[in-house]
Amino acid sequence: MVSFKEKHKNNPFANGHKVGTDTNKKGSFLWEAVRFAHKSYCVSHETLNSSTDLVVWLDADVVTHSPVPYEFIESLHKQDHYTSFLGRQQIYPECGFVIYNTKHPINETFMHDWQELYNKDTLFNLEEYHDSYLFWHFIKKHNLQDKSFNISEGHPHRPGIHVFINSPLGKYMDHLKGARKKQGKSKASDIYMKRDERYWKSIK
Question: Which CATH number fits domain 2-201: 3.90.550, 3.90.320, 1.20.50, 2.60.120?
Answer without folding.
Answer: 3.90.550
